[in-house]
Amino acid sequence: MEKRNSWTWLSLVDELETNSPEASWVIREILPEAKPFEIQKLEPHFILILEGVLRLENQNKQILHYFAPDSVLYQSPYELRVQDKLMLVAEADAKIVLLHREFFLNYAANKPHYYEKLMRATMANAASFMFELMRNDITGEDKLMYSFQQLIHSLNLESRGEFYELPHFINLQSLSRYSHVSRKSMYTYLEKLERRGLIKRQRNILSVKNPSLRNEWNE
C-alpha cells in the first residue's frame, strides 16, 4: 500500500484526471502574469496552485494575501457574497488546477487521506488569514515588520544565511499595498530598518533579516 506521505497534490490531480467521467471536472490552466482570474469559475470548482503565486486584492487594490504553490483556495466567494469585491491575479505565469467540488468530495469519500489533505490546506489558509487580520491591530513601523514576517511565511521563502530575499514582484508599490502603509511612511521605515541592518536593498531586490532573530529586531 502506498504510504500516505507519498501523496502529493500533483499525484492526486493525475489520479482524479484519470478517473473523472467529465473533462470539465479537472481543468489544468495557465494563468498569465497580471491577468485576473475569472472568479465565476470558483462557483463549481476550487483552485489548486501547482506553480506560481497568486495575490488576492480588494476593490481598493489593497493586497490581502499571497498564495504560493500547493495552496488551495476552497471557499467559494459566492457563498461569502464577495465575488464582486475580491480579485485573484497571477504575479507571474501560474499553473493552476480547477477541481470540481462535488466530484472531489465524492471521490475522496473512499480516500480519507484526501479529505485530510484538503482539511489541512484549508486550515492553513484560515490560520494565515487570521494572522493577516492581526496586522490591523498594530501601527507604524511594526506593521511593516509584521508584513515581512507574513510574506516569508505565506510564500514559503528559504533563507540565504541570515536573510530572506523577497521575490521580484514585492516592490515598493506592492509592499505598500500589502502592508497597508503609505508610500511616504514606508520610505521612512525602510531607511530606519536598513540603518539597523535588518533589511538590504540591492538592484530593486529587498532582503529581510530573519525575523526569528528577535533580539536584533526588538533593539
List keywords for this structure.
39% helix, 4-stranded antiparallel sheet, single chain, alpha+beta, 219 residues
Structure, explained:
This protein is α+β, with helices and mostly antiparallel strands. It contains eight helices and eleven strands. It has helices at 9-19, 77-80, 101-108, 112-134, 140-154, 172-179, 183-195, 214-217, and strands spanning 26-31, 45-51, 54-58, 63-67, 72-73, 86-90, 94-100, 159-160, 163-165, 199-202, 205-209. The strands form three sheets. It has a four-stranded antiparallel beta sheet with strand order 1-7-2-5. Strands 8-9-11-10 form a four-stranded antiparallel beta sheet. A hairpin with a 2-residue loop joins strand 8 (159-160) and strand 9. The model is unreliable at 1-5 (pLDDT under 50).
- Number-wise, the strands total 11
The topology string of helices and strands comes to HEEEEEHEEHHHEEHHEEH
What structural category do the secondary elements indicate? alpha+beta
User: β content, as a range?
Assistant: 15-25%
Q: How much helical structure, as a percent, in the residues?
A: 25-40%
- Count of separate DSSP helical elements: 8
What would you report as the Rg, rounded to the nearest angstrom? 19 Å
Poorly predicted segments: 1-5
> pLDDT average, as an integer?
86
**Major sheet characteristics:** 4 strands, antiparallel
Sheet with most strands: strand arrangement: 1-7-2-5
Terminal CA distance reads 53 Å
Could you state the oligomeric state of the chains shown? single chain
Q: What is the overall shape?
A: elongated
